[in-house]
Design goal:
The complex is a heterodimer of chains A (320) and B (292). With 320 residues, chain A is mainly alpha-helical. Chain A has helices spanning 7-14, 24-28, 36-67, 83-90, 92-124, 130-142, 145-156, 162-169, 181-209, 213-221, 226-237, 239-254, 258-263, 275-284, 289-319. The two termini of chain A are 18 Å apart. Chain B has a single domain (80-290), classed as MetI-like fold (Orthogonal Bundle). In chain B, helix 4 packs across helix 6 (153-177) and helix 6 crosses helix 13. The chains are: A mainly alpha (320), B mainly alpha (292).
């Protein structure tokens, strides 16, 4: 990728070691054999590569093999070709889960981005106790989901919970936030935004901090309104970091298991079953490892495609 | 808005005096402050609920105090919460230690090295990060079961290390990017080896990067639910997430006790963040993700 763009750094690779700063010939004629520098660098990545092979590459290969078999956790099963994939693609459960995953991801990414960016903008101005606000607003992301889902459950689950009671007092009835399919989907999405906005707030804050205030000075002198400053300076200047945060949050949302599973368990009547929850159920409740892993792979394929599109977008921003 | 305009004329030659921390707009300060208070209060309601309920006497309690630590006494004596806490601490600290030890040198290579192999390695990390945990959990569960590691803390520590490596390496690389290479070159000329330069120059100067990576690994291992749910089967090997969740399912209505174990579970990450949050930055992740 960036092979020749950073000349000063390439010196680190061709330079032998500092112990005996090589003659100029060394730099002009890069040697093929492994220099001490390269050997050390290779040793530096060995532990990481070994762990990646054992903990990521091996499971990936193993999983691909499982996805074309009809085995369970205890049994390898028979080779069934692409049956697990075609079964998944022709089942309504899969497409319903895909639909919910899409909604969950879109709301999760843009909801947490808007809230996070808004709060980052608010926190950019000087206010009393700014540091305290920053820490307090990070808490939803720091507190374990096991804990926060319990609290949300207490707040909304039954008709006698505080939030339905509040709705009742306002004359809106006592909605069943986790028992009504539509409301449960909405509640899970709001919960996800609550959990994730601090991450987006941190991403936005560090992007905003990198914008030189002089730019705003200049814009004000030219008579730009605050709205124009936001849409024409802030947003374009943080565009790159925004795309990156969208990619990361898309990955987090699609792969999310606990936020959904701990609040609703995927119910009521599968209304909040995402693809990951569906895959988990196939493997650990229906003991159909092959179909569960096939669902996860289909999902990953789409996820990687979306990431690549967004990644290209970053390149465009970079060259613009 | 007016801050830098009213600067004395002599500093007019240094517009950079308007530092990033200075507000670009100072108008409407009070409503911003009020809005912040309201939004923060709304955000914190669920967390306040946990703390509030944990301090309330249970229905069976005889105490007349409005606030009591009885729930904590109950869960500490009658449940295995202390064992779960110990298990969580062991697993989390081991994950943090191994992640940093593995990611720091790998991040160094990612930051300083250039070329096809390094780009390929970076891309590999990206692909791995996109894979859902469930894809690797099932094969690893079957593999580890063969070695008797399925219901063990060692087994889940390994899985956590595997899922932190990619991001941890990016975070270290992003931080090392900010250390000028001239420092190492000076050390090399003074006779240091590559390894010596890495230890004496890079590691010494990357405490914020290391802490950032450590906090990330801590949160991932401490808060994980899925891996622990799949791997841990016996109550004495539970970590807090599965322990607390099983306790919640067995004591559906005993909210005081439920919230007391919840408080015990959320104290360590909150303490960590309250003390070290200024070191934690996720901004670097993106830069190193898309920068090469």
């Amino acid at each position: 990728m960036a092979t020749s763009t950073l000349p000063p750094r390439t010196r680190a690779r061709t330079k032998p070691t500092g112990r005996a700063p090589g003659p100029a010939g060394d730099l002009r004629r890069p040697r093929r054999r492994i220099t001490p520098m390269n050997l050390t660098l290779v040793l530096f990545v060995v532990p990481s590569v070994l762990l990646l092979l054992l903990l990521n590459a091996y499971p990936l290969g193993f999983g691909l093999n499982q996805s074309v078999r009809d085995g369970s956790l205890l049994d390898d099963g028979q080779f069934v070709g692409l049956a697990n994939y075609t079964d998944a693609l022709t089942s309504t459960a899969f497409w319903e889960a895909a639909r919910f995953t899409l909604i969950f991801t879109v709301v999760g990414v843009f909801g947490s981005w808007i809230v996070g960016l808004g709060l980052a903008l608010l926190l950019r101005t000087r206010t009393p106790a700014r540091g305290l606000f920053k820490v307090l607003l990070l808490l939803p992301w720091v507190v374990p989901i096991v804990v926060s889902s319990t609290a949300w459950n207490w707040l909304v689950a039954t008709p006698s919970s505080p939030v339905p009671q509040l709705f009742d007092a306002l004359g809106w009835g006592t909605p069943l936030f986790l028992a009504d399919p539509t409301l449960a989907a909405i509640t899970v999405c709001i919960f996800k935004v609550w959990v994730s906005f601090p991450f987006m707030m941190m991403m936005s804050a560090s992007a905003l901090a990198s914008v030189d205030p002089v730019v705003y000075e200049a814009a004000r002198m030219d008579g730009a309104s605050p709205r124009q400053q936001f849409t024409q300076i802030t947003l374009p200047l943080v565009a790159r970091s925004t795309y990156i945060s969208w990619i990361l949050m898309t990955i987090f949302c699609v792969n999310d298991f606990p936020t959904i599973y701990l609040l609703t368990g995927g119910g009521p009547v599968n209304a909040t079953t995402s693809l990951v929850v569906l895959a988990y159920r196939s493997v650990f409740q229906n003991f159909e490892t092959g179909s569960g892993v096939a669902i996860a792979f289909l999902m990953t394929a789409v996820l990687v495609a979306v990431s690549v599109v967004l990644y290209r977008q970053i390149r465009k921003v970079d060259t613009a | 808005m007016s801050a830098s305009v009213t600067l004395p004329a002599r500093s007019g030659a240094q517009p950079a005096l308007a530092r990033p921390s200075r507000a670009p707009e100072e108008k409407g300060k009070w409503w911003r402050f009020a809005l912040l208070i309201v939004l923060t209060a709304l955000t914190l309601i669920p967390i306040a609920v946990v703390i509030g309920l944990s301090l309330q006497p249970s229905a069976a309690s005889t105490t007349t105090d409005p606030i009591t630590l009885e729930n904590f006494a109950t869960v500490l004596t009658e449940t295995s919460v202390l064992v779960w806490l110990r298990n969580s601490l062991v697993v989390t600290l081991a994950t943090v230690l191994v992640s940093v030890l593995v990611a720091a040198p790998a991040g160094y290579v990612l930051s300083r090295g250039r070329g096809r192999v390094v780009s390929g390695y970076s891309l590999l990390l990206f692909v791995i990060q996109s894979l859902p945990v469930i894809v690797s959990v099932v094969p690893l569960f079957i593999l580890f079961a063969g070695f008797g590691l399925s219901d063990s803390l060692f087994g889940i520590t390994l899985v956590y290390v595997g899922s932190t490596i990619a991001v941890a390496t990016w975070m270290m690389a992003a931080y090392i990017d900010s250390i000028p290479i001239a420092l190492e070159e000076a050390a090399w000329i003074d006779g240091a080896s590559v390894f010596g330069g890495f230890v004496r120059i890079i590691l010494r100067n990357s405490l914020p990067g290391i802490l950032s990576t450590a906090i990330f690994a801590f949160l991932l291992a401490w808060n994980d639910y899925l891996v622990a749910l799949v791997f841990l089967r016996s109550e004495l090997s539970f970590t807090l997430p599965v322990g607390v969740q099983s306790f919640v399912q067995q004591n559906m209505t005993d909210w005081g006790s439920i919230m007391a174990v919840s408080v015990i579970m959320m104290i360590p990450p909150i303490l960590l963040f309250a003390t070290l949050n200024r070191y934690f930055s996720v901004g670097g992740i993106g830069g190193s993700l898309a920068g090469r």
